[in-house]
Each structure stands twice: as C-alpha cells, then as structure tokens.
Amino acid sequence: MKNLLNNKFVLIAIALVVGLTLGWLIKPSSAPIMEADEHEHVESIAGIPITYTCSMHPQIRQNEPGNCPICGMTLIPLDNDNSDADPMALTMSPTAMQLAGVQSMVVGNADANKSIRLNGKIQEDERQNYTQSAHVPGRIEDLSVNFTGEYVKKGQVLGQIYSPELATAQEELFQAQKIKDTQPALFNAAKEKLKNWKLTDSQIAQILATGKVTDQLPILANVSGYVTEKMVNLGDYVNRGEPIYQIADLSKVWVLFDVYESELQWVKKGDLIEFTVQSLPGETFTGKLSYIDPMINPQTRVAKARLEVSNSNLKFKPEMFVSGKVESKGSSKDNSIVVPKTAVMWTGTRSVVYVKNVTDQAVTFKLRDVTLGASLGSEYVITSGLESGEEIAVNGTFSIDAAAQLAGKPSMMSPDGGAAMTGHNHGGTSEVKMQTTSQTSKGSVIVTTKAKNELKPIFDTYFKLKDALTKDDLATAKSSAATMLASVEKVNMSEFEGDAHMEWMKYAKDIKAALVKVKSAKALDEIRKSFQSISDEMLGLAENFKPLSSKIYVQHCPMADSNRGADWLSLEQKVVNPYFGEAMITCGEVTKTIQE
C-alpha cells in the first residue's frame, strides 16, 4: 500500500515536469509569430512595397531583387511617386537622380555671347593697285624692270619706247615755236599734245633747248610699289593706253575672312578680331573689321569680312592663310536666357526641357516647351518658355524623359502623357530614346584592351560609310551601313565591365536604331540625316572609350542640318564633307582631336 502511494506521487511529479516543459517550449514560439504578423501589418498600412528596376532599362519592374533580363545588371529599388506632387510631373528620389546622372542649374539672364572662329587670307588692298600703261604708241626698246616682284619708286625710269608719232609731234612743236609770236595758240597746242603723252614740262623745255628731235621716250613710274605682273617684253609694239606693268603698294594690306551665312548675325562692322598667321607662329594680331560684303558668294555660301592692317615692314604677304576669332554679342537688346545644349531635347518640331521643382515632400521634374534662339556653340538662347530663376535639368534629361514616359507622365514624344508602361516594350508604344551625350567626362569609364578591340570594326566601317557619303555613293553608303550594323551586333558585351557596360549599352542602342533607318533609305539625304545621329554617338564613344591608337579628328560643318551645324569623325585632318559631298566638299573645320 505504501509502495503504491509512493508510485502515485512519482507519476504526478513526472506529469508536472512534462507539463511545465511543454509550456515553456510553446510560449517562446508564439511570440515571434505575433511580431511577424504585426510587422507585416505595419508595412501594409505604410504602403511601401518595394519595386525593383534596371537603371539602363527602366521598363523592367519586379517586386523582388535580381538581375535585369536584358543586360544582366543588378536591379535597383524604385521609390514610388509622392501622391501630393503635381500629377503631370515626375517625382524622383535623390538615389534615382544620382543613378541617372541628373544635374540641374538655375537659369538667369545672361548676355548671348558667342565666339566665332574665322578663316581667311591676306590680299592686296585693291585701292593700292595700279596699272602702268603706255602713254604713246610705239615699240618697247628697253625694259629696266624686267621681272615681277621688283620694287619701283615713283618717277623711276622703267624702260624706253620708240615712237615715230612722238618724232612727228616734236617737228610740229619746232614749227610752232617759229611763229609763236604771231600764233601763240598754235605753239601752246603743240606743247599740250606732248603733255597729253605724259611728257613733263622739263622734258618739253629740254627738247626746245636742244632743238633736236628724239624718237625714244622714257617710261616713268607713276607710283611706288611692287611689280606684280609684267605684261610686255622687249620688242613688243604697244598702243597708247595699253598696260605694261601691274604695280601694288603693299604698305597696307587686307585680311579677308570667310563668314558663313549662318554666322553673319554675329559678325558686325567694328568688331574687334584677334587673328594669327600660319607662317608667323607665336604671334597674335588684332584689328577691327572695317567692311562686310553685302553679297553672299552663291558657290561657297560665304561673305567676306575685311580687316585693314599696316604692312610697312612687309611682314604680311598676299595669299598667307590666317585664322581669326571674334567674341560677339547677340543682337537682342535685353539679356537672354542661355542654357546648355544638353538641357534641350529636340523632336524635330518641338524643343523641350525639364523644369525642376523642390518641395519638402519631393523633387519633381515637369516637361516644358521652349522656343530656341541662336546657337552659341555649346549653348542655346531661349527666347520663350523659361523665366529667370527657374531650375532645369542639364544632364540626364533623356533618363528623366524615359522614366516620365514609363510612368505615363508628359514626355518628349508624348506631350499629353499616357498609360504607364510596365514590362518589356512589345510594340504599340514608341520606344523611349535613351542616350548618353558627349558631356560625359573623359576617363569616367575603365575600358579594357579587349573591349577596345571589340569596337575597332565599328569605327572601321563608320569611316567607310563617311567616305561613301563624301563621294555621293548611295550604294556603297548603304552596304557600309549594313556592315556597320553587323559589327555592332557582333560586339561581345561580356568584355565591358562596370560603368563601361552601362555606357556601351547606351551607345549601341542609338547607333543600331540610326543604322536600321539607313537600310530603308532611298536617297542620300535620308542617309545623311541618320549619319548625323550616328556621328553624334560615335563621337561620344570615341571620347569615352578611345578605341583607336591613332588620332581621330572631330570636324564640324556649320551649314549642315539646316544651318544648325553637325559633326563627324575622320582619321585625316583634311576636311572632306560627308553632309554635302561634291556640292561643298571642303566646307567645315577641325574642332577637336581625340587621342588615346
């Protein structure tokens, strides 16, 4: 009985221990479950589910991290738009702006100044050119000055001319002298006849004093200067008034600059110009423009601007090449809004910028149409659409525009906005152009030798395309474009790492888009329009990647693209224009040199 009672107590103790143990195990497991539920509830109320996107392909959006299915880059978180912001504006977080390379500036009134570079030649002053002619008919008996370039002084004897008519006139003078007391008018008429043949009073007096007839007359220089042309030889017969020499006084010369019609508005009479002479290295000269030709040459499409300079030491010689620079101001009386070209996106009919607005809640960008004025090299004058004090995006504008189109906001190609895009673009909606500009700082990407080798075939075919356009060869241009497209598509993207991968993706997309248009082109003008887009991307590619060991010359034609100007690349410094071909083959200048 006693053992049974002890067994009961043991069983009760064991049950109690087991119960306490189970209770302890169950209790801690329930607490985390409640916390997790509570955490999920808080996130749901806050409404912050994270969306991941690709910085290169913003149409890619998914609810979990990973890699981009197009380029393989790591996806980044995308912040949701602020609900309190302008519904027509795009909200961007500081992180998104940094990844897109967005930079902004506050615009203000500024002088519309432009630096104009001019090329020209030194020429003789037309007002200082003279013709030495024969004053009596006869035969050239002697030439004291018998080669061009010789300097002569006024009154110097240039040669002798034999004239039978001169002998006859002297006989008449002697006869009139005998009756001068009774018929003085006849005597004076005989002397005037000799004076009309440019005989001086002293020469006539000497003839009367000697009483002898001379049949040779010295040719005296009418002016001082350099003989630029000898027009007779010894023994030639000449008539009265026939040219013998061309003489130029080079104590003053003209510097004639070529001014393209698109730049005439910036060059004014009285402008100070600084110029250098190719054959006088290290020296800089200045002067004021004294004349601008009112007519444009129909072949070269340029007007002449004239500078007059003193040349007492004969440092300047006709036909020397000169290069000048004019710092000119716009014709507008009021200060203008001037913005970098990278801030402006041009659709062909519209020019737009993105205006930045900063509030306590968010940073937004809103599309704004503007009207462009004159081009100032790397800047535009804005004639309407912006006010002083407003802030605009100057870099990363295409990334902003792409994000705006994907979000259904007003964008460059969709000014009224539209439905937000998600996933891949399978058609029906215009593909947003994502491009990088040549404003990317040099050395911003690290490019391996293998990556550069991948780009060399692209540049080789680009130069073939350029050469075909300079020769107006439609068939070769199309075949070169097709070969270039194949070269772009064959590039091994795995050779591009880090930022280089991102940069190459931007350039490749736009180059391929422009080359595809060439395939369907039926005229050279269509190819040249696409070639301008190709050249812009190739310029940026050359600056950032430097794929060639040889020099690449950046050349610019101010008359291309309807006088807005366009660039292209060349391996030769000599300008051969692909935008006009044989019609204007030498139009343009070298603006930059790119070298590894």
TrEMBL record:
Residues 337-400 form the CzcB-like C-terminal circularly permuted SH3-like domain. Residues 52-77 form the Heavy metal binding domain. GO terms for biological process: copper ion export; plasma membrane copper ion transport. The keyword Transit peptide does not apply. Residues 134-248 form the CusB-like barrel-sandwich hybrid domain. Residues 458-549 form the DUF3347 domain. It comes from the Bacteria. Gene3D superfamilies: 2.40.30.170, 2.40.420.20, 6.10.140.730. One of its GO terms (cellular component) is outer membrane-bounded periplasmic space. The chain crosses the membrane at residues 9-26. Keywords: Membrane, Transmembrane, Transmembrane helix, Transport. InterPro entries: 3HB_CusB (IPR058791), Beta-barrel_RND_2 (IPR058792), BSH_CusB (IPR058790), CzcB_C (IPR058649), DUF3347 (IPR021782), HMBD (IPR045800), MFP_Cation_Efflux (IPR051909), RND_pump_MFP (IPR006143). Residues 252-328 form the CusB-like beta-barrel domain. Residues 165-214 form the CusB-like three alpha-helical bundle domain. One of its GO terms (molecular function) is transmembrane transporter activity. Belongs to the membrane fusion protein (MFP) (TC 8.A.1) family. This is Efflux RND transporter periplasmic adaptor subunit. It comes from Algoriphagus aquimarinus.
